[in-house]
Amino acid sequence: MIAMMASAAPTTLVHLSAVDLVIIAFYFALVLGIGFYLKRFAKTGEDFFLAGREMTAWVAGLAFVSANLGSLELLGWAGNAYQYGIMAAHWYWIGAIPAMVFLGIVMMPFYYISKTHSVPGYLKLRYGTEASALSAVTFAFMTILMSGVNMYAMAVVMEVVLGWNLHFSIIVSSLTVGVYVAAGGLFSAIFNEVLQFFLIWFGALLIPILGLVETGGWSGMVARIHERFPGQDFTHMWGPMSSASNNPMGVHWIAIVFGLAAVQSMGYWTTDFLVVQRVLSARDVRSAKLAPIIGSFFKMAVPLIVILPGLLGRAVLPFHLVPGNVAQPGQFKYDDVLPLMLARYCGPGLLGLGITALVAGFMAGMAGNVSAFATVWTYDIYRPYMRKDAPDAHYVSMGRWCTMIGLFVSIGTAYLVQYNKSMMDYVQALFGFFIAPLFGTVVLGMLWKRVSRMAGFWGLLAGVVTSVTVFLLMKFDPSWVKVFALSPLAQPLAQAMWQALWACVTCVVVTVLVTLVTKPKPDEELRGLVYALTEVPREVHTNWLHRPAVWGVAALVILVVLQIIFR
Amino acid sequence: MSEKHHIIPVWFFVGVLLLVYGFLIFASGLAEWSYPPETVHLANLHAPVWWGALLFVLGLIYCIKFSPKRKV
Q1: Which of A290, A343, A453, B22 has CB atoms 3.0–4.6 Å from A128's, for a disulfide?
Q2: Scanning every residue of chain B, which has its alpha carbon at the shortest distance from the alpha carbon of A212?
Q3: Is B20 contained in some domain?
Q4: What is the pTM (predicted TM-score) of this model?
Q5: Is residue B64 part of a domain?
Q6: B-interface mutation test, from A39, A350, A355, most B Cβ less than 10 A away
Q7: Residue A395 belongs to what H/E stretch?
Q8: Sorting pLDDT into bands at 50, 70 and 90, what band is A1?
Q9: Do the beta carbons of residue A289 and residue A544 sit within 8 Å?
Q10: Is residue B27 part of a domain?
Q11: What are the beta bridge partners of residue A333?
Q12: Which residues of B touch A (CB under 8 A)?
């Protein structure tokens, strides 16, 4: 097996010792053991698809934030921090924290009280089958494609970093994920996400600690960056954004505030079922409200292990990293910065821990995708359109089968991507097409009872069409970048923010216009689904320390302080 | 964590993971104490020893506090 693992790349970023391999092997044995242990508890549909709705706020909160702490994110954002500097932290702070608090305080009560199994399930209750079917089919399709893309990306990283054979990485990781998710359902996925959370923190935290020791602290690091890259600002978040031409991302602060914070991140954190599913597993409404807020505090700390290593790479690495599309043999890419920093400070044992954290991150990402896919397929496509009145055990069995089938489709997608690399960009862009308009549809439906059945559907469809159109125009004719992103210098990250903003605005405008000319749903059909007709439990008799709103405000205050410190 | 199912808390598994990893990393740090790897920066700080010890202690605390045999 070791020979098969090492049969590929002759030069690798790191070399593992025996103790590192023992650490990796122990992780695989533990997650499989946990999966088999949890199988006995995943008997009913609620157990398998929603972990019995009995997770504490802490477990649901850690799983919620871990579902977004996959290895692709870690490697990619550390690379972005090297490329763009501390501006990349916007995606962890203003581009996440307000949305997480909004989910906890405003949206979670409706998701939870409606007893929905999924986001498309909420749309079905609120609007009807049209909007729900559009959302469910696109989510299931994209999730499985995304899982394949992640699988392929993981295999490539393992090949480059460790020299592991591509097929070995794909087959071993997907079979392991398939076995433990099919066994324990969302129980297994959540347990693995909590393990991954600890692994990633303990595996990566040494990099910033030792990096700051080497550079002589934050000010020493900043001084080294200025010395090595004179005239470029990598250590301020807001200063370089007064104009798109002042920063390497080509982004204006308006795009960060209105595109990233108000639309893109709201869409992702409040309507992407992959993350929302973790919170739906909470044991009561208060836990469901607290979970995303607990997650927000950890999310705020993630730049310590992702953004800081990227900045330290600028300060200490003796060579310059280059964009992935121009890297020549022997040159390192931006996305290699995290493994390079890991290899710089970590010897045998610690290296194994860091690599296990990356492997765990990849596998947890896959598990998240397939568990969300299994739920949406079974409850939002199979049950309403194929077999309505089967016993609960039948749907659990369907969930187990489609976990495995979903993984095989993902493997197929991974190999398809291998032979058609540009497909990867399109699949990753796909998610952006639906998330922003979906946020408009869901939040309008929750807050305004007048929104009609067909307004939800047409608004969502119009938003998606706008998103696809804006994306294609900017991709194939760069002259449109200036029109939609208000600057010809806008880089893909900035373009995506504007694309989300236009899609959401279109969705909201169309939804409002169609609502005004169509008949609203009767009040009795909307109880427990919209703000005006739902009795949300208040925590008036709860100790103030246990109130979600108190912690939500605390998270927002810390966010503001961080913005001021790193402005 | 689970009232309906009496599942072993996930924190216990976290403890097992940290305990085993802490021991392995601590031991490998001690083994290379006199001859730290030349390619690793700041190897003179012996990070595996104190980081491994930290993981081991945290793992031990989690294992004891969330042991399935412990009565709440």
Answers
A1: A453
A2: B42
A3: yes
A4: 0.90
A5: no
A6: A350
A7: helix A392-419
A8: very low
A9: no
A10: yes
A11: A322
A12: 1-5, 7-8, 10, 13-14, 16-18, 20-21, 24-25, 27-29, 32, 36-37, 39-43, 45, 47-48, 51-52, 55
- Give pLDDT tens digits for A335-344: 889 989 998 9
Q: Quick count: other Cβ atoms within 10 Å of Cβ A522?
A: 7
| A531-541 as b/e: b if 16+ CB within 10 A | eeebeeeebee
- CB distance B25–A353 less than 8 Å? yes
Q: Which two tokens stand for residue A155?
A: 């295999």
Q: Closest by alpha carbon to A181, among A377, A390, A363, A379?
A: A363
**B45: chain A residues, CB-CB within 8 Å:** 210, 213
Q: What residue spans define the domains of chain A? A: 2-565
For A3, the 3-state DSSP assignment is helix
* Token duo for residue A66: 């871990």
A2-565 CATH fold: Sodium/glucose cotransporter (1.20.1730)
C-alpha pair distances (Å), A391 with each of A19, A136, A383, A396: 49, 22, 11, 9
Query: What percent of chain A stands above pLDDT 90?
Result: 56
Residue entry with tokens 């994920």: A177
Confidence grade of residue B5 (pLDDT, cut at 50, 70, 90): low
Spatial distance between the Cα atoms of A353 and B21, rounded to a whole number of angstroms: 8
Domain that holds residue B16: 7-31
For chain A, how long is the longest CA-to-CA vector? 70
ipTM of the complex: 0.94
* A130: Cα separation from own chain's centroid: 26
Number of structural domains (chain B) is 1
Element (H, E) at B64: helix B47-65
CA–CA distance, A436 with A206 (Å, rounded to integer): 36
> What is the C-alpha to C-alpha distance for residues A157 and A149, in angstroms, rounded to an integer?
12
- In this structure, the dihedral spanned by the alpha carbons of residues A74, A78, A80 and A82, taken in order and rounded to 10 degrees, is -170
A4-32 residue pLDDT tens: 444 444 467 778 899 999 999 999 999 99
Q: Do B47 and A187 touch (CB under 8 A)?
A: no
Which residue, A411, A56, A103, A21, is CA-closest to A272?
Answer: A103
Tokens of A346: 């970590």
CA-based end-to-end distance of chain B: 11
Interface residue A216 vs chain B (CB under 8 A): no
